[in-house]
Structure formats: C-alpha cells, structure tokens
C-alpha cells in the first residue's frame, strides 16, 4: 500500500510538472529597450483605439505620449519662459519615428505572451496604416535541436536505451518550451548525468554507488548552479524537471518489478553496480559531446549582450539606446563625462537623456534666482555650478553690508 502511495504521488508530480513546464514556456527575444517592447502604429490610428485594444488583452502600464506630464514644477517660479520648455519638446521624440509618421508605445516585456492577440486585433486596423513591433521573436530551433541530437547520441551509446530515453524526456521538453542558451546548456549536462546513471541500471547496490559517485553528482548539480546564477525563475522550473524525471523513472521501475514478479525466472545482473567504473575512456570521449554543446550555448549567451538590435525595418528608424547607456549607474562622474561628450557632438541630433533632464530641473528650479538679462537657452549645467542670492544686513558700525548666500550647488545630493 505504501508503494502504491508513492506511485500515485509520482504520477501527480509528472502531470503537474508537464503542465507547468508547458504553460510557463518562454523564449529569448531582442528589443531596442531593456524591459520594454516598442509597438508602432501609424498616427492615423487613434491612440485611444490602440490603448483600448491593449487593455482588452490584459496589457497595462503602457508608456505613451499622452500620459507624459511635466515632471517638475518650481514653487518659486511656476511660470517659465519658452526657452525652458525645450527639454519637454525634445522628449516627444521618444514617441515617434525619425520621419514623424509613426506613434510609439512602450509595453512592459512581461506582457510578451499577451501581445500576439493584441497585434492580431490591431492588424484589422492596418488599412489605416502600419502596425508592428520592434521585436525579434524567431523561435531558436537550434537549442532543442542540439538537445535532441545529444539525446540520440547518448541513447545509442547506452546499454539501457529505454532508461536514457525515458530519463531525458522532461529535459528535452524543457528545451523546447524554454529555449534559452543557458537552459540548453543545463539540459545537455543533465542528460549526460542520466546517461551515467543508466550504466548502473538496474544493478544491485546502485543507490550506494550513486551516493558516493562525485562524477555523477557533478553533472546533476552543475545544471542547477548554472541556472541559479543566470535566472532563479528558470532554475526553479528546472527543479520540476528533476522531480518529474525521477518520478517517471520511479514509475517505470514500479511496473518493471510488477512485470518481473509474474515470471517464474527473474533475471538478476551478476555484476553489481560497484564493479562498473563510470570514469572510462568511452564515457570520457562521450563527455566531449555535451561539453562542446554546453560550452557553445554559454558562449552564445555571454556574447549575445554585445549585439544590438537593428532598429531599422523598411526605412523605419526608432529611438534607441546608445553605447554610454551601458553604464551601471548614474553619478557625478558619468554625468560630467556625458555632458562633455554631448557638447562636443552638439551638432549631431540626439535624444534627450538624464543629463538634459538634470540640467532642465536645475534651470527650472533656479530660474527665480537668475539674472534675466544674462539668461540664455537651456545650457547643460556643469558639475559644481552654484546659485547665490544676495542678502543685506547691518554690521556693528551701522553700515548695510551685502553678502552672497549659497542657495544650491550641483553635487551628488542634487
């Protein structure tokens, strides 16, 4: 009865894992902006129509031009001259293409699985103009294909072909539903661990040998370590692959024993598991296959971040990040370096960035203290810029003395 209970739990784990792995499927995609997908439509399509279709399909928190507000208002001088509004006009460029024929919407990438239905509905409005995404969503067939090839090679090389094939079903499914480079590497390494275990199946003392086999444990733990370093979410889903795989093997072993119990003669392997070495020349040569595949996937993953998406399609040019936006943080040194770079290339048309924003806030907030006769257009404020306000007081001799009081200074705190 106890064994039947474990089999029922194993069946539940297999079915639960199958459903969860399938419905949590993800794949790699590339877009211009980290964390966002850019939807573009012709300006002839009303923004309200686009937003209603997106909301209908469960897509929220869309960044649009109409939702933009003045980010800062000075209490001292709420009414500003026209030249201080230059930054507010410049930032509108983020919501149109270079030719100003398209309207852009920034959709959080968490909505990637809802965007397809929304695009289908928006396409019905296509007679009014262009509808599309800046997204490259081609399915990476190379990852599950390489995993399948490795599975075939390991199955051919193994004496327990059924064990290897059954043990690699869930890893292969994972590679199809979650075709990411690091996932592919983890799947291949895990498949090799299943192959090593198959060498001892179903011999006596198998459990004791496996518990002491560092070689096998290395390839069982390495995939999880790799995934936890890259993505905790994918690592947790891959834990289901472990549970489902060993549950499936447990079910297989249960029915194997039931089948053998009906036989008068029960075949038992003469050679026990502790007499079979796992570190053999054959296994070492076969290790080259998963090692090469996993290595290639890891290299692709590392260098994929160095490639930028081509932001032009059919002569469409969209706002895109530049090289200096790769900096990990924004501080005074990066501010000053970017400000100088912008001054050198001031003839080149560019989008407003954090340097423009800081300078705009500085000029807007300190407008009340500026000399109107010397005020110029919104210049980029340099590090250490200061604002003083003259104050007057009577000294000990009864004379009125002027003193400049520091109002603010452009430093890290600001």
Strand neighbour order, sheet with most strands: 2-1-3
Total number of β-strand segments?
Answer: 7
How big a fraction of the residues is strand? 5-15%
- The secondary-structure class comes to mainly alpha
Q: Which shape, going by the Cα principal axes?
A: elongated
Characterize the largest beta sheet: strand count, sense, and whether it forms a barrel. 3 strands, antiparallel
What's the rounded overall pLDDT mean?
81
- Uncertain stretches of 5 or more adjacent residues: 305-314
Q: Which series of helices and strands comes N to C?
A: HEHHEHEHHHHHHHHEEHHEE
Kindly report how far apart the N and C termini lie: 71 Å
Helix percentage: 40-55%
> Rg, please?
32 Å
* Total helical segments: 14
List the helices and strands and how they pair.
Blueprint: H1 2-23, E1 36-42, H2 47-56, H3 86-90, E2 102-108, H4 115-123, E3 131-133, H5 142-157, H6 161-167, H7 169-177, H8 181-198, H9 206-212, H10 214-230, H11 232-261, H12 281-304, E4 312-313, E5 316-317, H13 332-344, H14 354-365, E6 386-394, E7 400-409
Helix pairs in contact: 1-7, 1-11, 2-4, 5-6, 5-7, 5-8, 5-12, 6-8, 7-8, 7-11, 8-10, 8-12, 10-11
Keywords:
414 residues; two-stranded antiparallel sheet; elongated
């Amino acid at each position: 009865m106890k064994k039947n209970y474990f089999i029922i739990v194993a069946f539940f784990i297999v079915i639960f894992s199958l459903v969860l792995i399938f419905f949590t499927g993800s794949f790699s995609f590339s877009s211009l902006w980290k964390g966002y997908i850019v939807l573009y439509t012709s300006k002839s399509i009303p923004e309200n129509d686009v937003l209603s279709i997106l909301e209908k399909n469960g897509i929220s928190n869309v960044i649009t031009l109409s939702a933009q507000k003045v980010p800062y208002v000075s209490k001292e001088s709420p009414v500003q001259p026209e030249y201080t509004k230059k930054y507010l006009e410049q930032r509108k460029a983020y919501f149109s293409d270079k030719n100003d024929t398209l309207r852009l919407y920034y959709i959080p990438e968490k909505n990637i699985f809802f965007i397809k239905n929304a695009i289908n509905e928006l396409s019905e409005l296509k007679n009014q103009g262009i509808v599309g995404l800046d997204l490259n969503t081609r399915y990476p067939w190379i990852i599950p294909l390489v995993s399948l090839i490795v599975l075939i090679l390991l199955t051919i090389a193994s004496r327990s072909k059924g064990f290897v094939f059954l043990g690699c079903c869930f890893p292969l499914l994972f590679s199809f539903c979650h075709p990411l480079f690091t996932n592919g590497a983890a799947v291949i390494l895990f498949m090799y661990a299943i192959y090593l275990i198959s060498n001892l199946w179903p011999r006596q003392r198998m459990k004791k040998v496996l518990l002491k086999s560092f070689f096998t444990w290395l390839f069982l733990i390495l995939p999880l370590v790799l995934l936890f370093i890259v993505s905790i979410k994918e690592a947790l889903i891959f834990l289901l692959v472990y549970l489902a795989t060993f549950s499936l093997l447990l079910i297989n072993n249960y029915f194997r024993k039931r089948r053998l119990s009906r036989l008068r003669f029960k075949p038992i392997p003469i050679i026990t598991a502790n007499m079979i070495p796992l570190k053999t020349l054959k296994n070492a040569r076969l290790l080259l296959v998963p090692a090469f595949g996993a290595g290639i996937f890891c290299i692709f993953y590392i260098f994929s971040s160095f490639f930028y998406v081509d932001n032009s399609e059919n002569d469409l040019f969209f706002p895109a990040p530049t090289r200096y936006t790769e900096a990990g943080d924004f501080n005074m040194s990066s501010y000053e370096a970017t400000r100088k770079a912008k001054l050198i290339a001031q003839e080149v048309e560019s989008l407003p960035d954090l340097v423009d924003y800081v300078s705009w806030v500085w000029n807007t907030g300190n407008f009340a203290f500026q000399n109107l006769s010397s005020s110029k257009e919104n210049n980029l404020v340099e590090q250490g810029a200061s604002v003083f306000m003259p104050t007057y007081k009577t000294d000990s001799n009864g004379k009125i003395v002027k003193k400049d009081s520091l109002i603010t200074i452009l430093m890290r705190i600001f």
